[in-house]
Amino acid sequence: MVRTVQDALKDAADRLENSGASTPLLDAEVLLCEVLQIDRLYLYIQRGRSLTQEENDAFEAFLEKRIQGVPLQYIIHRQEFMGLDFYVEEGVLIPRPDTEILVETVLQWVNAEQAFKGHQDILKIVDLGTGSGAITVSLAKYIEKVQVYSVDLSEKALAIGQKNAQKHGVLEKINFLKGDLLHPLDEEDLFGKIDILVSNPPYIPAKDIEGLQIEVAKYEPRMALDGGPDGLDFYRRIVAQGDQLLRPGGRIALEVGHDQAEAVKNMMVAKNKYANINKHKDLAGIERVVTATVI
Ligand SMILES: C[S@@+](CC[C@H](N)C(=O)[O-])C[C@H]1O[C@@H](n2cnc3c(N)ncnc32)[C@H](O)[C@@H]1O
């Protein structure tokens, strides 16, 4: 059956809407653009053109996946983060725009403050739970003299992180380490030597995961989401050891769930090893990042 771009889009948007997709027309457009390898603007210029059988089949295959609830980013294998294009696939968390605040906080420190500006040596940054490498690769790209140590327990995440590092030409500025949170850093004898510790750890309370959108609950890796019974397990472990990993005066920056900032701040206060403990809000006024300096 020969269809025009316009007809294919209309049919796809209707089917996606019936499947419960929240942005059916946009999803259809993105998928068709991927098949045709064109920009969205050209989609409308070409709306009268007929799809070849091959294009139609490829579009149908993409559409079927999206109707099943597979996130768009896993179908087109792409997500933009900090102005960079990241490769993603099932098995690795899709980077979220919220996490850009965490990266921007670190970049502000590095660019504006005397403690980091004009740093003679190479700045040492640790990223715990690196996933696709979104945080790690952005920091390596935007900071000139830096070595990032990126830890993940997932073999697949590390492979994709490396792929993204290579894609953006920063592989040499990153050490990818497989293991459980701070363990590999201890093995590499990095305790006491790190300038900045950054992490977006799993923070969803285990019991809430099934109730998330199907795209997240069914297709994103549980290992990237599950923060234990109250969602705070990783913060307890990171706060407990972060002061030993960081040099005195080193900084910590943690992304937190929408209602977790106060609890994480309190952990830092109770530890008695952190000063300048601050909560940072996103554009919607939600506290998304907690930062502190090691005493
Ligand atoms: C919320 S995701 C963050 C991914 C990425 N940093 C981002 O912001 O898009 C958390 C990551 O932590 C990793 N992870 C889970 N448990 C871990 C552990 N015990 N040690 C190291 N990494 C772990 C997961 O595999 C996942 O990649």
Task: Give a description of the structure.
Substrate binds at residues 200-203. Keywords: Methyltransferase, S-adenosyl-L-methionine, Transferase. This protein has 295 residues and is α/β, with parallel strands linked by helices. The chain has 2 domains: 5-68, Orthogonal Bundle (Helicase, Ruva Protein, domain 3); 92-294, Vaccinia Virus protein VP39 (Rossmann fold, 3-Layer(aba) Sandwich). Helices cover 42% and strands 19% of the residues. It has helices at 5-18, 24-36, 40-45, 53-67, 72-76, 100-112, 134-142, 155-167, 183-187, 214-219, 233-245, 261-271, and strands at residues 79-81, 84-86, 123-128, 146-152, 174-178, 194-199, 246-255, 274-281, 287-294. Helix 7 (134-142) links the parallel strand 3 (123-128) and strand 4. The model has no long low-confidence stretch (mean pLDDT 95). It binds S-adenosylmethionine. Residues 93, 95, 99, 129-132, 134-135, 151-154, 157, 180-181, 200-202, 223-224 line the site of S-adenosylmethionine (SAM).
Order of strands, widest sheet: 5-4-3-6-7-9-8
Largest sheet: 7 strands, mixed
What is the end-to-end distance? 69 Å
Structural class, please?
alpha/beta
The CATH architecture term of the largest domain is 3-Layer(aba) Sandwich
Output the number of helix runs: 12
CATH class of the largest domain equals Alpha Beta
Output the helix-strand order: HHHHHEEHEHEHEHEHHEHEE
CATH topology of the largest domain: Rossmann fold
Range of strand content: 15-25%
Mean pLDDT score = 95
Q: Point out poorly predicted stretches.
A: none
CATH homolog superfamily of the largest domain? Vaccinia Virus protein VP39
Shape: elongated
Q: Quaternary status of these chains?
A: single chain
- Integer count of domains: 2
Radius of gyration: 21 Å
- The percentage helix is 40-55%
The set of bound ligands, ions and cofactors reads: S-adenosylmethionine
